[in-house]
UniProtKB/TrEMBL annotation:
InterPro entries named in the record: SBP_5, SBP_5_dom
Alphabetized GO MF terms: peptide transmembrane transporter activity
Pfam families named among the record's database cross-references: SBP_bac_5
Name of the protein: Extracellular solute-binding protein family 5
Domain Solute-binding protein family: 256-512
One GO biological process term: peptide transport
Species per Swiss-Prot/TrEMBL record: Natrinema gari JCM 14663
SUPFAM superfamilies in the record: Periplasmic binding protein-like II
Keywords, in A-Z order: Signal, Transport
Family: Belongs to the bacterial solute-binding protein 5 family.
Length: 523
């Protein structure tokens, strides 16, 4: 039966609460006039570790006697459709999903919890609305003093945990494995979208070298959905084009903002910045970078799926000369310099409509896009007119001549391809294999706390989950430690708040423990 078919049948039998979590659930059931056991479904993507997570969640909640839960698995495209239409269609389902943020705390909260972020403009799929949360989000965006931003986002996180529109379950890790005999210099970028920055990112002082070959073969976890930045919303598309496109700034492997297409900038007043562009930078189609490319690339986002990437902060810009541009933010904007990393500058041919970036992605990056065969592979080749002139640690010419990214959805198949020598690097081998691979001198392994978390989303639009008490009770029962150890083999960390420990100032261990003790762990 599809998830829309479960009506949440009310039974007449009673359940005795046993402990603080159950008492909260009982309180919420009484307030919403719900009799246990309440029937519902946990929905997950098929073929993933989340089905095992869902089994543990099902057991923990059913043991209370208040719930009777089934598990439904769907292909990703169907799962996404169910997820984004859940509230509008009043679906009786809890969704187990993952979210990947970035280098700014806003990445972890705005799209998920602001009351204006309903699909299709956001992923607040259970239509959560709280004026205080909205105020924190908006104030945090406009605050430019670091310490004040930290305090705002800590208060915001505490508010979310207290209200529990979702349960944060696990912070993930980025784990990369490579053939140690063939690859040297590889690093795990903390965000999956930037996986292939490790090939050649001179602005991050990073370069990979190969032994006995000039082609690096690696993997993608799924097909590419688009190669146009204004509509790019999936990890595989970002990974495949990370070496093709560049923005004014970059964020290195330690989270520090670095100059890329802009070689320097300064703040003129509270909302106005002046950027100096590198001279002589060429696009892959032969155009030379100018301030006009920057202005038009920003304005190209208007009305597109990724419009918020720019128009959340962009007011206007003024071209001072060919290599100087003043950018006006429409408000004070704390993440400004970091946001520029996510806005690639594209050629005028794409801006004028003469070039379709969906079929021919063209940027200024160290590699040009050659070919993509859906379900097979993506091919890039070195761009020999790249602007970088070399440094003491990174050569002017990338050692890797070509990059081939094979589409390999299954983690076990990725490991098999690596062990067979068919690929050189993988970012998605099974977590159960990491310890053995790390102990084998034939492989290099790098693990890094990432920018993602797993969460259980409650249907707030339906009783009994409209009750904060029910959600908080469920949140207290979730077996986070067991999930990390038994499902992910110790890869990752229990999550109690949304902002990743990657942003340590906003979510350090002491803060996480305090929130867990106060709101999640039973006394």
């Amino acid at each position: 039966m599809g998830i829309s078919g479960f009506a949440g049948c009310i039974r007449s039998n009673s359940v005795e609460a046993d402990g603080p979590a159950e008492e909260l659930i009982q309180q919420g059931f009484a307030a919403t006039d719900t009799a246990p056991p309440f029937e519902t479904t946990i929905v997950v993507t098929e073929g993933t570790e989340r089905s095992r997570v869902a089994t543990l969640l099902k057991s923990a909640l059913e043991d209370t006697g208040f719930f009777e839960i089934s598990i439904a698995e769907y292909k990703w495209t169907t799962h996404l459709d169910l997820l984004t239409t859940a509230a509008d269609e009043n679906k009786n389902a809890l969704f187990m999903v993952s979210w990947t943020g970035g280098w700014d705390p806003d990445d972890y909260v705005n799209m998920l919890f602001h009351s204006d972020s309903h699909p299709p403009n956001g992923l607040n799929i259970n239509q959560y609305a709280d004026e205080t949360v909205d105020e924190y989000i908006e104030t945090g965006l406009e605050e430019t003093v670091f310490d004040d931003r930290v305090e705002i986002y800590r208060q915001l996180q505490e508010r979310l945990v207290a209200d529990a529109p979702v349960s944060f379950v696990r912070f993930g890790e980025v784990t990369h494995v490579w053939d140690a005999d063939a690859v040297s210099g590889w690093q795990a970028y903390p965000l999956e979208t930037g996986t292939y920055n490790a090939v050649y990112a001179p602005w991050a002082d990073t370069v990979t070298k190969l032994e006995g070959s000039t082609e690096l073969v690696a993997d993608l976890g799924s097909d590419i959905s688009t190669t146009d930045p204004v509509s790019m919303n999936d990890t595989a598309s970002s990974q495949a084009t990370q070496l093709v496109y560049e923005g004014l700034t970059g964020i290195d492997f330690d989270g520090t903002v670095q100059p890329v297409l802009a070689d320097e900038w300064k703040r003129l007043d509270t909302t106005r910045y002046r950027f100096s562009l590198r001279e002589g930078v060429q696009f892959h189609n032969g155009e030379e970078l100018t301030a006009a490319h920057v202005k038009c690339s920003f304005e190209r986002y208007e009305g597109e799926p990724r419009e918020a990437d720019v128009f959340d902060w962009y007011g206007d810009s003024e071209i001072v000369d060919d290599y100087t541009i003043d950018i006006d933010c429409r408000r004070e904007y704390g993440p400004f310099e970091r946001r520029l990393f996510d806005v690639p500058i594209v050629p005028m041919a794409a801006i004028d409509g003469d070039l379709d970036l969906e079929s021919t992605p063209i940027g200024t990056g160290p590699y040009r896009f050659v070919d993509y065969q859906a379900g097979d592979d993506c091919r890039l080749e070195r761009f020999d007119e790249y602007w970088f002139e070399g440094s003491e640690t990174v050569p002017a010419t990338a050692p890797v001549e070509t990059v081939r990214l094979e589409v390999i959805p299954e983690p076990a198949s990725r490991q098999g391809a690596l062990e067979a020598g068919n690929i050189d690097v993988s970012y998605g081998v099974p977590s159960a294999s990491l310890a053995d691979l790390a102990a084998d001198d034939a492989y290099g392994v790098d693990r890094h706390v990432g920018g993602g978390f797993d969460m259980l989303i409650y249907p707030l639009y339906r009783e009994p989950f409209s009750s904060t008490a029910v959600r908080r009770g469920c949140n207290m029962l979730l077996p986070r430690e067991r999930i990390v150890e038994e499902v992910y083999n110790g890869v990752g960390h229990p999550a109690y708040t949304p902002i990743s420990p990657l942003l340590e100032a906003y979510a350090d261990e002491e803060f996480q423990e305090r929130i867990a003790d106060e709101y999640v762990r039973s006394p």
